[in-house]
TrEMBL record:
It catalyses: prephenate + NAD(+) = 3-(4-hydroxyphenyl)pyruvate + CO2 + NADH. Residues 8-285 form the Prephenate/arogenate dehydrogenase domain. GO terms for molecular function: NAD+ binding; prephenate dehydrogenase (NAD+) activity; prephenate dehydrogenase (NADP+) activity. It comes from Microcella frigidaquae. It is an enzyme of class 1 (oxidoreductase). Pathway: Amino-acid biosynthesis; L-tyrosine biosynthesis; (4-hydroxyphenyl)pyruvate from prephenate (NAD(+) route): step 1/1. Residues 293-362 form the ACT domain. Belongs to the prephenate/arogenate dehydrogenase family. This is Prephenate dehydrogenase. Keywords: Amino-acid biosynthesis, Aromatic amino acid biosynthesis, NAD, Oxidoreductase, Tyrosine biosynthesis. GO terms for biological process: tyrosine biosynthetic process.
Length: 362
């Protein structure tokens, strides 16, 4: 392939979702990729899927990627630095500070190490779930430190660009604070809310709509993996949780006596602060845009959703997002379609004229 940036041989340690997906994306570009894992079966599967090949004794990788669980990342990187003295080494763990600190304690040559973190994944793991396009358009953080320059780590940026991701430069500390805010604390909040559902009545659970589904969507996560992640990033997570705790305490005080002076104001101000916070979340293509939503009722029969999406495309309207909700026992579903505000009314009018039932718009 002539359009690739990376020309070094790449050795990937860890044939799980991320490691195999990186291998698939790079081999599509013509990069020579070798794979290793503690599980021979995982390696064979990854090779069968086309993510690379088994290593040979004469291999001389220029770049090594450790795609292993957080609690063994530092040891894996340190071993790779020793076994491949000419190679640049990176990892894809979701916490960077503890890995770098452990490497320094081990006396590893961190002048050849730069940690990274692709902001991509799937609900399922393993090589069977890997995809070559997993990283396309996704941020991929390069967590810089004082012992290496970004220029020295140029091959890592080449890898990121070759798999279709967007490189983002941060310091190690900035990365860990950032992922605590946008990933680790949301996981805990979602899990805490989902845990309340264990004791909910069947009637209450039967009423579950998009609100509780949105809040708890990420709660079905691997406890073992998250214990590793949270333990490695404990202080930034705890700092944010203390702020959440203060907000909850203020809510409890207001709800204890809703008629007391200032109680309603406290409730309103927290909701308004949430409005301001969610408005900062980047929209499609990384821009801060607020989209309009309309809810379309669709019959619970084969082909109806496909017909809706086809007709939106025929109207020349770009759909920014789509969410589906199905009420148990009901013969209809609800498709919440997000579009730019300036085309919302035209879409409502056009879909209504075509016989679609609009259940709501904003």
């Amino acid at each position: 392939m002539t359009d690739r940036r990376l020309h070094e041989q790449v050795h990937i340690i860890g044939a799980g979702l991320l490691g195999t997906s990186i291998g698939l994306a790079l081999t599509e570009k013509g990069v020579d990729v070798t794979l290793a894992d503690v599980s021979p079966t995982a390696v064979r599967l990854a090779v069968d899927y086309g993510a690379g090949r088994a290593p040979r004794t004469d291999d001389r990788p220029g770049l090594v990627v450790a795609a292993v669980p957080p609690d063994v990342t530092a040891a894996t990187v340190a071993r790779a630095l020793q076994e491949h003295p000419e190679a640049l080494v990176t990892d894809v763990a979701s916490v960077k500070g503890s890995v770098l600190a452990e490497l320094r304690e081990l006396g590893a040559d961190v002048t050849r190490y730069l940690g990274t973190h692709p902001m991509a994944g799937r609900e399922r793991g393993g090589p069977i779930s890997a995809r070559a396009d997993l990283f396309v358009g996704r941020p991929w953080v390069l967590a810089g430190h004082d012992d290496i320059t970004y220029r020295r780590a140029g091959a890592i940026e080449d890898l990121i660009l070759d798999v279709g991701a967007v490189p983002i430069e941060m310091t190690v500390a900035e990365h860990d604070r950032s992922v605590a805010m946008i990933s680790h604390v949301p996981q805990l909040v979602a899990s805490a809310m989902a845990a309340r559902l264990r004791d909910a009545s069947n009637g209450a659970v039967g009423l579950a709509g998009q609100g509780v589904r949105d809040v708890t969507r990420i709660a079905a996560s691997d406890p073992g993996l998250w214990v590793q992640i949270l333990s490695a990033n404990a202080e930034p997570v705890a700092q944010i949780l203390r702020g959440v705790r203060d907000d909850v305490d203020a809510l409890l005080a207001a709800l204890a006596d809703p008629e007391a002076p200032g109680s309603r104001r406290a409730l309103a101000e927290l909701i308004a602060a949430g409005n301001a916070g969610v408005a900062r979340i980047p929209g499609k293509h990384g821009t801060d845009k607020r989209f309009a939503q309309l809810v379309v009722m669709i019959d619970d029969t084969p082909g109806q959703l496909a017909r809706l999406l086809t007709e939106i495309g025929e109207l020349g309207i770009n759909m920014e997002d789509l969410r589906l909700e199905h009420s148990p026992g009901a013969p209809v579903g609800f498709a919440e379609v997000s579009v730019l505000p300036d085309v919302e009314q035209r879409l409502v009018d056009e879909l209504s004229a075509r016989g679609w039932r609009i259940a709501g718009a904003s």
